[in-house]
Amino acid sequence: MKIADALRVIRKLEMETREGRDTVATFRHEGVVLTRTRVPHGRGELEGRLPSYIRQDLCLNEDEFRLVSNCTYWRGEYLKILQAKGALSSHGRPSTGETRT
Amino acid sequence: MRLDDRPLLDEDEAGFIEAPAEEWQAQTGLAAPLNAAEVVAARVVEALRPTRVGLGALLVKLERLCRAAALAAESRNVVIASLLSDRLELTTPLPVHVEWDGHQCIASSRDVGVFGVGEDENTALDDLRLALVEFYFDLKDEPVGDRLGRRRTFLSSVVREKG
Question: How close B109 gets to chain A, by Cα (Å)?
Answer without folding.
Answer: 11
